[in-house]
Amino acid sequence: MASVTTLTSAKADTRPSAIWHLKATPETIHWGYFSPEIKPALRIKSGDLVQAEAITHHAGDAPELMFDEGVERIFREVDPASRAPGVHIMTGPIYIEDAEPGDMIEVRYLQMTPRNNYGSNLAANWGHLYEEFGRKERVTIYELDPSANTAHALYAYDFPGEYLVPGTITNCPVCDRHPALPGITIPARPHLGTAGVAPAVDAPVSTIPPGLHGGNIDNWRIGAGSTMFYKCQVKGGLFSIGDPHVSQGDGEISGTAIEASLDCLFQIILRKDFSFPSPLLETPENWIVHGFGEDLDQAMKNCSMDMLHLLHEQQGLSKEDAYSLMSVAADFGVTQVVDGTLGVHARIERRIFPGKGTVIDPT
Fold it and tell me: What pLDDT does 10 receive?
């Protein structure tokens, strides 16, 4: 469960803060959904730090490599019938004291450390080229080299039938393994594919599509050193993390990243001094806005409108100037095409603004 250690916050007000340790257990996770009805796994104050475990639902693709006692307990004790309507194992939720609907929470991601040095990529039935590959699903197991911060493929195998059950455990020790990607190394960039606050709805919301609450954004830039801003929809925010990745490309074309469990350190700060309509990402170099839609045209339009909002409301540009700047200086990209609701992101460099674009920084 959770334990607490006192330390001094690095925030500008330097008030005493706490670091909480939140283990992922059957009692502290919710599998496949966000909901305001979930009992908080942890209650914190603004400025507190949280060391939390994020567990991949793909650990069963190579249980001999990706399981440990804690992971195995989650897979064994959580009823498969309750793993719905989505697929991701979410740790939390975390209740932030004094957070009200409409407030923003600022989540500063400080560290993301692999729980073990293995991950899985599935070319899935929801992948973009599933039909082109004859409806075949293939698992590739990767090994992480933490000293070089790279990953390389260990082997691959064809998944029998259709990969449908969240938390599937395959019989990989006796599967037909194939060599994969000989001589190729991949840069590791650990990040969270899914994180967010509870939506203000009556029924559980699937973790699969992204939305204004966050969810399955699948942007590989949401890693250590980045900051995400989420708008609270319910009292306390009820923030959860999951779907940890070792690496992913924009598009996530096969349906998954290198899915691998992570230990995450982050600080949550309650913000009542500004508002933003969609999940907003700050990196040391960039502002990144996200847009979602049923197709890429709608996702692009929503992303464009929220980038316009950022430049007009937060940077003080006229809408006409902001529109011109977006065309000459903002880079739009496809975040993912495999989560039902599609994603587009827009990146603009902070250095082009006076004060390096720190309007949202309260300090």
Answer: 37
